[in-house]
Amino acid sequence: MLVMGEVQTGLLQNSGEISESACRQVLGLMAGETVRVSRRPIVHALSPERLTGVDCALPTASRSRIRGVGTVVTRCAVTGGRVAQGSTYVRVVRSETDRRLPWSHYLARPGVVEVLGKAKAADLAEGFTGDPAPGCLDLGAVSGRFLDLVQASPLLDRRAPFKMARTSLRWVAETGEPSIRFTLHTERERTLRLTHPGPFTPAVVDLCEDLALHDWLLTSLLVIVERARIGATPGAQAVARLAPAVDHLLHLWMPAARVEEWLTPFWESLERRPGFTRQWRSLVDRVRDQVAMNTLALLTAEAGRR
Amino acid sequence: MLVFAISDKGGTGRSVTGTNIVYRHALQGNDVCYLDFDFGSPTAGAIFSVSAVARGTRDRNGLHEYLRGECPQPRRVDVWAESDREGLRTRPPGAGRLVLLPGSEGGGELSALTDELIGRCAQLFGRLEEEFDLCMVDVSAGRSFTAELVLAATVRMPAIPFRWLVFHRWTRQHIIAADGLVTGDDGLLDVGARFGHDPEVLRDRIRFVRTAVLEPDAAELVGLRDEQRAWLSACDSELRELARRHGVGRTAMLGKVPLDPVLQWREQLITDEDVLASKIANAETAAAFDELAKKIVDDSAWEGL
Ligand SMILES: Nc1ncnc2c1ncn2[C@@H]1O[C@H](COP(=O)(O)OP(=O)(O)OP(=O)(O)O)[C@@H](O)[C@H]1O
Ligand SMILES: [Mg+2]
């Protein structure tokens, strides 16, 4: 029917970026399975997947009660040794029967939730990306808990260079005529509706995680620039407040770096509108201009003293 | 930084002082949140003038429900957006976020400590600490499960910095009681050690705050007879000596807040407007909150005793 997921993204709670080997340890939530690391163009570490069993109501726009049983898949990622993500998704399918089957049935279908009774994909998709009623399947809560585990790793010193809220991206993917819609809700909540050609593959999850990562980077840079109060505070002070962005964020922007070829048109469409990279560039320029102007002012003052 | 606000006795000024400190800290440009862990009477909403949660939230999404595992995330109130007070409803330029996590109306005190409860509490603290420069937790008065809860939760997160403020009035009974709450049987150090804190380290993370202090040279006392002033002075030095003996003296004190006519009549935030425009509050009171808001994160004020 459809696939739905939620990615939570936050600043890794450590003073500096962590090494590849530290990433492996931080993400080794499950013994016996290894963390996958890719190094180019940016170090990206992905944890093994973990399953969570669920038997609960699914969110629907019509508020009709639809029961789903099965398991959801969660994985965590660390990008550039600096940004952490918890990502949970589930394929929602119709059950062959109207009653709940033994757990062995569901365990044989990892990452699948079967819907008992009648349900429409559109109702579920709108329910999930709309305003889910309390008590429904909450993939964000699952992602958040796994992200907490990462952030609580004893390898991290918890002295992050700045405070930043996590963002959440709730997404729904369906098969059909290609389209993508990214929506900002509250300060911290975003949704994504994606229709892709061909059957679902985990590459779609990679795409959603990549979008969530870049949305978090952009949101964080906006917050840091706002906190700097450029123009309202002395230049040196504004630059000092911008410094954490220069030190920890600016080099992380690598849109679509890990997205499979056939899905890159979706990123490109978002680049046209709303234009992630355009906004990022203009912010980065603003930060760099401030730093340059402040340096110039310091040099001029220095020359004046001589 | 997590800051736990406690007092031995009720009605010492813990909530009013704590809320005013976070308010000042937000004005100083920091993102702050205030957690109403005074489960028996969650009234922080009233002090921030958010009438919708004046006595806690009614929507089953307060800190009670969160800790009991009945809602995934506790409600957050953006004070700059939701306060009924005109002077609070716009975020001043340069100020950080000011967020209240209300308790639940009719929630009641905690009746037991469970492992799940401690886990959820630690999870909440961990998440808020990612996001806010300062999280102030109103732990309620006296020895309570709530105090045990936060002591147990902080043991689980050794890397997260935390501090305690013990509020007390400037009287004999209050000084002795404040000391007892820290060093007495079942006091913070005692219980903290039981949960796995190092008492010496914990001791260094506790400071006292004197509330509603009437200085012998205060303007309020101008009309007094010489005999009365002399008597007050003598009392004050006696109290200082008593405080020193009980480890509640100057070195262990983070600051003091003068008695303020506005606060005597009403639990509220003291804004600059109250001091400068309507002139109902004393400038010294606002200055004391401002000073405390700085000292709370100033490491030199927290060096070993
Ligand atoms: N600096 C001050 N000057 C005058 N009155 C004050 C001052 N600080 C607090 N008060 C008043 O003292 C009373 C008790 O204060 P508050 O409610 O903050 O205490 P509390 O310790 O939180 O009490 P409880 O234990 O009941 O929660 C209130 O009426 C408050 O307005
Ligand atoms: Mg109170």
Report the top-level CATH class of chain B. Answer: Alpha Beta
Average predicted local confidence, pLDDT of chain A: 95
Low-confidence stretches of chain A: none
Count of beta strands of chain A: 10
- Per DSSP E runs of 2 or more residues, the count of β-strands of chain B stands at 8
Q: What would the principal axes of the Cα set say about the shape of chain A?
A: elongated
Calculate the terminal CA-CA distance of chain B, rounded to whole Å.
Answer: 20 Å
Number of helices of chain B: 13
Describe the strand arrangement of the main beta sheet of chain B, using strand numbers: 3-4-2-5-1-6-7-8
Shape descriptor of chain B reads: globular
Taking Cα atoms only, what radius of gyration of chain A do you get, to the nearest Å? 22 Å
CATH superfamily of chain B: P-loop containing nucleotide triphosphate hydrolases
Domain module tally of chain A: 2
**Mean pLDDT rating of chain B:** 95
β-sheet strand percentage of chain B: 15-25%
What would your notes on this structure say?
The complex is a heterodimer of chains A (306) and B (305). Chain A is built from eight helices and ten strands. Chain A is α+β, with helices and mostly antiparallel strands. Chain A folds into two domains: 2-199, no CATH class; 218-304. The radius of gyration of chain A is 22 Å and the shape is elongated. Chain B is an alpha/beta fold and 305 residues long. Chain B has a single domain (2-297), classed as Rossmann fold (3-Layer(aba) Sandwich), CATH 3.40.50. Chain B has an eight-stranded mixed β-sheet with strand order 3-4-2-5-1-6-7-8, with helices on both faces. Chain B is globular and about 60 Å long. Chain A binds chain B through residues 10-11, 13, 134, 138, 140-141, 144-145, 148, 151-152, 154, 156-160, 163-166, 227, 229, 232-233, and chain B through 29, 31, 61, 71-72, 93-94, 96, 123, 126-127, 129-133, 157, 159-160. Magnesium ion (MG) binds next to helix 1 of chain B.
